Amino acid sequence: xxxxxxxxxxxxxxxxxxxxxxxxxxxxxxxxxxxxxxxxxxxxxxxxxxxxxxxxxxxxxxxxxxxxxxxxxxxxxxxxxxxxxxxxxxxxxxxxxxxxxxxxxxxxxxxxxxxxxxxxxxxxxxxxxxxxxxxxxxxxxxxxxxxxxxxxxxxxxxxxxxxxxxxxxxxxxxxxxxxxxxxxxxxxxxxxxxxxxxxxxxxxxxxxxxxxxxxxxxxxxxxxxxxxxxxxxxxxxxxxxxxxxxxxxxxxxxxxxxxxxxxxxxxxxxxxxxxxxxxxxxxxxxxxxxxxxxxxxxxxxxxxxxxxxxxxxxxxxxxxxxxxxxxxxxxxxxxxxxxxxxxxxxxxxxxxxxxxxxxxxxxxxxxxxxxxxxxxxxxxxxxxxxxxxxxxxxxxxxxxxxxxxxxxxxxxxxxxxxxxxxxxxxxxxx
Length: 430
What we know:
Blueprint: H1 9-20, E1 26-31, E2 37-39, E3 42-43, H2 50-56, E4 64-67, E5 78-82, H3 87-93, H4 99-106, E6 110-113, H5 117-127, E7 130-133, H6 148-159, E8 164-167, H7 169-177, H8 181-202, H9 211-223, E9 235-238, E10 259-264, E11 267-268, E12 271-272, E13 275-280, H10 287-305, H11 313-331, H12 336-340, E14 380-383, E15 386-389, E16 394-397, E17 400-403, E18 411-412, H13 421-429
């Protein structure tokens, strides 16, 4: 890992929150992700399963966390299983967690090697009535690959059919969505690294630069600041490419007079940032571009003020739609007849702003959080309205990450990243 070690008290608190919600006499198991193969002897870079990381801080493959708050003996209430390390592994793969180091990282005193897992689980099952299995129930999930968690569930159900089954996901959806102060600090660090990348490219962009060259400048700045890279696949779309919402080819030349939409964020310690900025290739917006840009910025600023405790996500988007409708009328993109005759299921503004305004953010870019429940303090949301005009050859989206407060407006974690037209033009022309 490149990041500074996280204080283990965060993970101790997270486990306590999860175990407080478990049923009596229940066990919960969390597995690391697999290392996924490509072909031959090559594989994808390892990415830790965010749930086991959230609960333990372990950032290593082939690790298992067992939680059993009602275990007969105190040392059985939290058990961590790790792949046994040795000198050979250290030479070929690098240092792995020792039992002593695992205690320092996680705060878990009872650490075993992985080969002891089945034996110890069998003992725990004789004391337990219920098993919490960890399934992916995120509203955006579309998993086709059989994960390590899925294989464990299949094996466990065959071996222990008489035990009751519970789901860890509903608990995690709630507790992961409300951030501890340490987590907010880590997301802030990811945002600060993103800011450094953005400021770097403001002095780099000029007519005829390639989109992938901009991507390279971002990744250079991210890695040199202890990030392992992008929090998600970056979108760097110039001209009409900005109107493709998930444009990731990043292979076109940026032409004079065009705009570049950059949806880019650094990760730090597995926590995400999620930024979008739109800038002029030539360093100056045209009058029309500026008018649309300021309309998007106005919607973003007003939408941000609505992110308050008690706000319902669905109603929030309806209100943002009203803001966007007003701006599109002012820009002449829609007229009163369009609004009067609109389909309530697909309002007139959706022709130019067809995606949602906000989503939870944290360990995952689209983080855990139940959208049917009211917003709460210390939830982190994006705010990302956009206007996309293929007929005029440009699209504009602006996005910041904000923390909901107990009272007052959200705290903007990207408050230092340039966004006003005058500041962007000044920095690009300096």
